[in-house]
Amino acid sequence: MSNTSSTSKTQRSQKSQTSQKNQTSQEAEEPEEGRESSGSSRHEEAESRPTPMQVLRHARTQLAELTGMAPESVSSFEQTEDGWTLEVEVLEMARVPDTMSLLASYEVELDPDGELTGYRRVRRYERGRADPRRSGGR
After folding, report:
1. Which of 5, 20, 80, 94 has its CA 20 to 30 A from that of 115?
2. Fold of 52-129
3. Where is this region: Disordered (predicted)?
């Protein structure tokens, strides 16, 4: 009988030691997991930021929805402290011949996530005409 009780005590002692080791190893791993999660949240945040091409595509889509006019091209694109600034060429009025169609340049402002925060028309011109502001001796 003493062997049985001694074996039971040994088994309980081993279980207790194993349990304590598991708790100690879990506690030691928790700070690492905390570091990983903060690192991964920074990584996720960086991944959640849109790429420049995503910003361009989304800006064109948003401008088209707001104005009802078709963007033809993006003539400038710049990242700023507040987000992004674009200049988008838009077809305002289609005419025949096409060289007489009216185009406009819109300055579009976006937040860092690529959401449109404002826009304004900065010039309007016929497709077939050179822009006098930029074609001269600048």
Report:
1. 94
2. Nuclear Transport Factor 2; Chain: A, (3.10.450)
3. 1-80
